[in-house]
Amino acid sequence: MHLDNVTFTGSRIDDEELLVRLPSNLAGLLRQVNGFIQFHGGLHVRGACREPTWHSLRDAWDGKFAFHRLYSAVRSDDIPFAEDCMGDQFLLRDRRICTLCAETGEIESLGLGLREFFDAVAEDPVEFLSMHPLLQYQQDGGNLQPGQLLSGFPPFCIKESENGVALRAVDAEDRRRFLASLANKLRDVPDGEKVDFRIVD
């Protein structure tokens, strides 16, 4: 597979046991390149490695903070192989790709296989990966580093975000846990209900 705009690649594979559990096309991709970041953070595909944990597919799939432990809608056999710049997740479920909206915990099927997914990324990365916040962050002089995700306040699922969102780079693992906590708190809140946020340093 030819990949454009790769801005980070994972180190050598040190988790062969994980590759055996993966569909052959994903395992083959990771043997070609052990996970990567494209578009300076627009897409992060996890690797078959144990360290760093932010890049480890095993950690995201089986670890203490695995996505199926954080979100009730995620199944233990869903493979959280990738994420976008804000921390929304791409899951392989029965060889088809679903998106997990990390702010709300909602899952939507894209109806795509792995090859079709990467074809869609290549064709229009900005729209397909919802990279507009990242482009705005870069335009304002920001630079997302490997191991970081963007944090937006107020969250995009809140109506007030229509008036603008403050963006900053944060540790990827902290961001994932925050999003899961937010989704859990919002799960039973009806649409249109007022929500108060308390900022804690």
Task: Give an overview in words.
The protein is built from 8 helices and 9 strands. With 201 residues, it is an alpha+beta fold. The chain has one domain (6-186). The strands form 2 sheets. It has a 7-stranded antiparallel sheet with strand order 1-2-3-4-5-6-7. A hairpin with a 4-residue loop joins strand 4 and strand 5 (89-93). The mean pLDDT is 91.
Number of strands: 9
Beta-strand percentage?
15-25%
End-to-end Cα distance, whole Å, is 44 Å
Mean pLDDT: 91
N to C succession of SSEs: EHHEEHHEEEEHHHEEH
- Main sheet: strands, sense, barrel: 7 strands, antiparallel
Return residue spans where pLDDT drops below 50 for at least 5 consecutive residues: none
Question: What structural class should be given to the helix and strand makeup?
Answer: alpha+beta
Q: Which descriptor suits the 3D outline? A: globular
